[in-house]
């Protein structure tokens, strides 16, 4: 079956506020105070926990990869304690997903967020049951941009790996789709939206209202 696979952070939901809050909690524990700005550092937030830790430590003048590694789990712990305080789904996302399902598509999530946290977040947002499969960064021995992460997501959703596409918001998503030989759709409303055109995806998505038409054009 035709399958549409979605990234999570920055694609289905803006999670940057809660991610940045967790990172700042780590910096406060280190005696550095808040180092990240919820509005200005959204691009870094969607690149993951270690990217936020690196940026904050660089700003504080104490770049140290050992500290990044040591603070990774504490950051995830803080994040799990307040995972949906500031997070919100992008406008029209669930309506578009329901429309795809009604039209006979399988829908799934392939994210580099740890699986338990992804399930926790999707449950808190009340949308976990809208998807036929959900694979996180630690579900398999590999993760995006390895194409097997995407292919196994499609398989677990009951889909056909030769008739799928990936909707995302980062260079990692672009690389994943390219490695898998499937179409990529990159959203322009995420934190790095203005950078997406340069990645030359098969389609840019300005609003979820347009998703159905884009999907039909790319995979039928």
UniProtKB/TrEMBL annotation:
Any single Gene Ontology cellular-component annotation = cytosol
Question: What pathway does this protein act in?
Answer: Organic acid metabolism; glycolate biosynthesis; glycolate from 2-phosphoglycolate: step 1/1
MF terms (GO), sorted A to Z: phosphoglycolate phosphatase activity
Please give the catalytic activity noted in the UniProt record. Answer: 2-phosphoglycolate + H2O = glycolate + phosphate
An example Gene Ontology biological process:
DNA repair
Q: Which domain of life is it from?
A: Bacteria
Q: What is its EC number?
A: 3.1.3.18
Instruction: Please name the Pfam families in this protein's record.
Output: HAD_2
Q: Which PANTHER family match?
A: PHOSPHOGLYCOLATE PHOSPHATASE
Which family does the UniProt entry place this protein in?
Belongs to the HAD-like hydrolase superfamily. CbbY/CbbZ/Gph/YieH family.
Protein name per its UniProtKB record: phosphoglycolate phosphatase
């Amino acid at each position: 079956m035709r399958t549409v696979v979605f990234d999570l952070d920055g694609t289905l939901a803006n999670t940057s506020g809660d991610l940045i809050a967790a990172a700042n909690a780590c910096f406060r524990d280190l005696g550095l105070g808040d180092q990240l700005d919820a509005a200005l550092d959204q691009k870094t937030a969607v690149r993951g926990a270690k990217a936020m830790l690196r940026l904050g430590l660089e700003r504080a003048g104490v770049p140290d990869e050992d500290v990044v590694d040591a603070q990774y789990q504490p950051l995830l712990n803080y994040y799990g304690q307040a995972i949906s305080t500031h997070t919100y789904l992008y406008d029209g996302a669930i309506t578009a997903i329901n429309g795809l399902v009604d039209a006979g598509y399988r829908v799934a999530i392939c994210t580099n967020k740890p699986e338990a946290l992804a399930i926790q977040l999707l449950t808190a947002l009340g949308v976990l049951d809208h998807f036929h499969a959900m694979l996180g960064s630690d579900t398999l021995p590999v993760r995006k941009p390895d194409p097997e992460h995407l292919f196994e997501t499609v398989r677990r959703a009951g889909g056909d790996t030769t008739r799928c596409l990936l909707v995302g918001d980062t260079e990692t998503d672009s690389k994943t789709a390219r490695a898998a030989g499937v179409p990529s759709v990159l959203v322009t409303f995420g934190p790095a939206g203005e950078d997406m055109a340069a990645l030359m995806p098969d389609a840019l998505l300005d609003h979820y209202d347009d998703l159905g038409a884009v999907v039909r054009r790319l995979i039928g």
